[in-house]
Amino acid sequence: MTPEQLTARKRRLASSARALVTGDLGLVPASRNISQALRVMENEAPAGYEVFEQFHDAIPKDIPLGIARLRPIELLLNFDARLVELEARFRPALLRASMALAETYG
Description:
The longest helix has 33 residues. Helix 1 packs antiparallel against helix 2. The protein has one domain. By secondary structure, the chain is mainly α.
């Protein structure tokens, strides 16, 4: 990875972390972006941010994400009740980790 690529990935990481903290992106898409940025950084990724992967691993596979959410509203509300509980459980750790990443990388 070139220094320029690493700098760009750190910027993306910081941007996604800020978006999670400010609420500009929801927990699911922001944490997905952070997880992807950390994976792409490979051995340059900081340690101690497993909470983002843990959050995604905890989301049951039957809960629709992304475009799959375009379903009848009653089905979506049913799924969202479960997702909200999961988000509430992970929110403090996700916010702490995101704030640390935003402070570290920009």
